[in-house]
Automatic annotation (TrEMBL):
GO CC annotations on file: transcription factor TFIIH core complex; transcription factor TFIIH holo complex
Start and end residues of each stretch annotated as Disordered: 1-33
Compositional bias segments (type: Polar residues): 24-33
Protein name listed in UniProt: TFIIH subunit Tfb4/GTF2H3 like protein
Gene3D superfamilies membership: von Willebrand factor, type A domain
Subcellular locations according to the entry: Nucleus
Amino acid sequence: MKPYISASADDGPGGEAFPVEAANSDNPTDLGSSKQKLEQTIVLIVDLTPAVWVNGVPPLSKSQNVSRLQLYNLYNIMYRFIKTYAIMSSSSRCCIIATHSSESRILYEGLVSNDWLTSSFHGVSTQNEHADATMTGIWRSMLDFIASGADSPSGDPQLTTALSMGLLYLNRLNKTGTGYGRRILLFDVSTPDGYKSQYIGLMNVAFTASKSHVSINTCAFGQSSRILEQLSDITNAKYLSLPKILKSEEDLQNYDQSISQLLAFWFLPSHSASEHLSTQLPFDFSNTAVCYCHYSTVDIAFICPCCFAVYCSETEDNGKYRIFCFICNSRLTKQLIKKKMAGDADFSKT
């Protein structure tokens, strides 16, 4: 059984798929035409889990002199990235989606050249005031969104919902001809064992994105997530694990500046530009099977027939037979409770 490729607004993927309409060659202004189909839209998904950003994200280093990545550092990283993206084209669009365990919300959407860049002419204060108001509004929206998740500060973010919103946004722009985008960039601060309960929904989103030629890129600020690595692999995207790259003391001392340079190099170029650049990650990911019960590498595994979740054993840690899949909650094949002889069977009740 293959995963069903679909999406709905209630429980993630489960409804209509995300088709991308073919280009209309009769309309010369159609952005989907072969001559004007330029990639100019990016979706940025930010994990704003309150429990993480209260104390900041610690870099995976044994050095005591390395400071944590605070929320204002993340804001500065986003500001540099989007401002550089705005300079690349006057028609660049961006959608910022924030997510935590309670909800997913769009914090910003629009033309970044109009909202993020100040005026280059002396004495023109209207554009400068508009850019300052946009920056202040996004910062306040981030604070308000984190405050809204104070009731459940440590749960897994609603990543399935956020990715579905990003796909729907790109699909709407493509269908209406107001833009064209193929990239989603996720700022992830989750734990390695996160998103297990959303595995089926995330896989459906990944296959839908792959069908629509949309890449789900990930920039992991903490430990690597196998599920997010799989999402990037399915959509032919990039998975950037910062702890595997930023190891020197100099990089860790200038953490936010180093991250900004990495983001500009790996994620700013479009798909067409990346084909002409040597943008290969310095490490490759293997498709080695990893169990979802202990997150250990296995050679011989037990597979759930519904969601393809991998288990290293048929029994749980307490020695009891595994009856339910804790990823999709499907009931697994149950062993015989008691062996009986054929002569002892009572056929009168059948």
